[in-house]
Amino acid sequence: MKNLLVILTVIIGAFSASARNNYSHNQEDLPIAAQTILKNNFKAGVSHIKIEKDFGKIKEYDVILTDGTEVTFDSHGNWKDIEVRQNASVPATLVPKAIADYVNQNQKNAKITGIEKNRSGYEVELSNGVEMKFNSESRFIKYDK
User: Fold this and answer.
1) Is the dihedral of CA 48, 71, 32, 51 positive or negative?
2) In the Cβ-directed half-sphere of 97, how many Cα atoms lie within 13 Å?
3) CA pair distance 131, 144, nearest whole angstrom
4) 75-124 per-position pLDDT tens digit
């Protein structure tokens, strides 16, 4: 019985240790693809990085830039979510052209302050508070509340 308790304690300790998130201030701790996106699209430097793990394997990177911009990358360095300050815009190079065109035509004075990419498509937040959904081909689906 004691051996079983010792084994269970070791297993639980190993899982909890491997599930811990790490923090960094060093951009070089990101995958090369994420480093390139940050370098080519954002002027602000990295304030800190939260490296999220799931059972010891890196799940995603949550990056906070010095200007308050938040960018989430998957384990390979592809962006998943970008949020900027209310008076700023998500860099145009990271917004699919069809989405940018639709927003410009239908929400004339609004800026894209957030964009999330997932399997089903994109969710976009605008500076005027409007939220929109687009499919994976960047076609408008609906306004979201």
Assistant:
1) positive
2) 0
3) 5
4) 999 999 999 998 899 999 999 999 999 999 999 999 999 999 999 999 99
Concatenated DSSP letters for 106-137? HSTT--EEEEEEETTEEEEEETTS-EEEEETT
Rg for the chain (alpha carbons), in Å? 19
Q: How far apart are CA 66 and CA 130, in angstroms?
A: 26
Residues in the chain: 145
- Unique residue bearing structure tokens 């976009």: 124
* DSSP sequence for 57-99: EEEEEEEEETTS-EEEEETTS-EEEEE--TTS---GGGS-HHH
Rounded Cα–Cα distance for residues 88 and 67 (Å): 10
Q: Which amino acid is at 30?
A: L
User: What is the rounded CA–CA span in Å between residue 65 and residue 48?
Assistant: 7
pTM of the model: 0.83
∠ CA(122), CA(124), CA(125), 5° rounding?
160
